[in-house]
Amino acid sequence: xxxxxxxxxxxxxxxxxxxxxxxxxxxxxxxxxxxxxxxxxxxxxxxxxxxxxxxxxxxxxxxxxxxxxxxxxxxxxxxxxxxxxxxxxxxxxxxxxxxxxxxxxxxxxxxxxxxxxxxxxxxxxxxxxxxxxxxxxxxxxxxxxxxxxxxxxxxxxxxxxxxxxxxxxxxxxxxxxxxxxxxxxxxxxxxxxxxxxxx
Amino acid sequence: xxxxxxxxxxxxxxxxxxxxxxxxxxxxxxxxxxxxxxxxxxxxxxxxxxxxxxxxxxxxxxxxxxxxxxxxxxxxxxxxxxxxxxxxxxxxxxxxxxxxxxxxxxxxxxxxxxxxxxxxxxxxxxxxxxxxxxxxxxxxxxxxxxxxxxxxxxxxxxxxxxxxxxxxxxxxxxxxxxxxxxxxxxxxxxxxxxxxxxxxxxxxxxxxxxxxxxxxxxxxxxxxxxxxxxxxxxxxxxxxxxxxxxxxxxxxxxxxxxxxxxxxxxxxxxxxxxxxxxxxxxxxxxxxxxxxxxxxxxxxxxxxxxxxxxxxxxxxxxxxxxxxxxxxxxxx
Lengths: 199, 332
What we know:
The complex is a heterodimer. Chain A is an all-alpha fold. Chain A has helices spanning about 5-15, 20-40, 50-65, 75-100, 115-140, 140-150, 155-165, 165-190. Helices cover about 75% and strands about 0% of the residues of chain A. The model of chain B is unreliable at about 230-235 (pLDDT under 50). Helix content of chain B is about 45%, strand content about 15%. Chain B is of the alpha+beta class. Chain B has a 6-stranded antiparallel beta sheet with strand order 1-2-3-4-6-5. In chain B, strands 7-8-9 form a 3-stranded antiparallel beta sheet. The N and C termini of chain B lie far apart (about 65 Å). Chain B has helices at about 5-20, 25-30, 35-50, 60-70, 115-120, 125-135, 170-175, 180-200, 225-230, 240-245, 255, 265-280, 295-305, 320-330, and strands spanning about 80, 85-95, 95-105, 110-115, 145-155, 155-160, 165-170, 210-215, 220. Chain B contains 14 helices and 9 strands. Classes of the chains: A mainly alpha, B alpha+beta. Chains A and B meet through helix 2, helix 3, helix 4, helix 5 and helix 6 of A and helix 1, helix 3, helix 4, strand 2 and strand 4 of B.
C-alpha cells in the first residue's frame, strides 16, 4: 500500500483545487525527507554549499514526486504546485514547533527544550512566509521565483525552464527578491509587532 | 509601486550588485540620476546583501533540517526502524524515548516508543513481554491508545502506537484544579476505558495523569500495563524508582508492598487521580477548612470508596464506579 506517483499526482491536483485533506496525506512524505536530511546533518555528514544542497533537495524531490513518470499538461504548473505545497508544509511545521514549546498544547507530551537558535530559525521561516505574502501583492512573478527556488529547491536553470524566461532573468529576480525579503526580516526583528516597512 | 518600476529597480540593483563595492556609488550616480528615492531604495537593498549565513542561503527544507539537527532531537531522528521512519522526539518517559514517526507502508503518522536495552538481554523477560504486548494490542476502545505493532531492528526493540495530539492531564493540572463538571467528564471517560480493559482481563497498573491524554475527541489512556517493561530487576517495585517515575502517589498499598494486584489496584489509582483533578493534590484533603475546592458530597463518597487501603473494602469493579459517577454527574 505504498504511495505511488499517480497517487501523488492526484493529491497535488486535489490540493491545488482546494482539498485540504490532500495536504494531510502529503505531509508525512515531506516530513520523511525533512527528517532524513536532519539526521544527515546531525550525524556530521555536513553539506556545505549551495550546489550540493540543491542537488540533494532535487534528489529528495525526485524521490518524492518521480515527476519523470508523471503526465502533467504543464510541467511548470506542476512544479509550481509542488513548491507551494512544500512552502505550506514547512511553514506550518515551523509554526507548530514554535508554539508547542510555549505550551500551546498542540503536540503531545513534554518536548525537548529547543536550542534558542533553532526556535529563532522557525520564527524566521514564518517571517519569510509573511514577507512573501506581502511581496506577492506587489509583484507575483517574484513570489513564483522564490517559491520555486527557495521552497522547491530548483536550480536557476530549472527555474528558468519552468517559468520560460532566461536564466539571467531568474538570477536577477532571485537576487532582488532575496535582498527585499532580508530587508523585511530585518525590519520586523526590530519591530516586534510584525508591521513591516511600507514599500 | 508598479511591476514596471519594480523591474527597473531589479535591473539597477542587479547591475550594482555585480560591481565591486567601491564602484557602486559612481554607477548609482549614473543609473539613478536625481531620483533620490530610487537611490535610497537600491542602497538599502545592497545593505542587506552583506548578511552572510542567512536563512535564505539554502533551500528551505535544508534550513529547517539544520535547525532540527541543532536541536539535537534524539538519537534516532531521521532513521528507519523496520518500516517506520522516525521523525521528532516527542517525549522521554521513564521507559525510553518516544518519537513521532511515519509508517511508510500506510503513509500515516504513528508514535514509536524505543524500549530499553535490558529487555532484549533477558530471553525470559522478552517472551513475557511479547505475550503481554499481544494482549494489549488486542484492546480496541476509543478511550485507549491503540498499540499497532511491536518490532525490532538490529537489536533495538520498539512499540508502535497510535499518534495522538493533545495535552497530558498532568500538564493540564499543573495549571490548576479543574471545575467539577470537567473533572467528572474526564473521570467518566477514564472509567469507561478501565471498565473495558478489566473486562478483557487487562489491568493498567500505572494509572496517573502523566498517562492520560486529553485529545480533541476526549480522553485517551496510554501506556497500558506491560509489567515486564516496568520492573527491570528482580527486586520489583523499588519505591525509589516509582517515586522517580511519578507513580508512587497513585500506587495502592498492595502494589507498594509487592503483594497480589488486580483490577482493584487500578480503582485505587483512579480514586487518587480523580481527587487530584478536583482538589489539586493526589491525597485526600483533611476535613474542613483545608480543602481548596468544594468536593461534592456524593463524589467524596465515591472517591473514599476507591481509596480504602484494603482492596476488599474498595468498590469491587470499575463498572460500578462508572455507574455511580454517571449518577453523580446527572445529579450535579
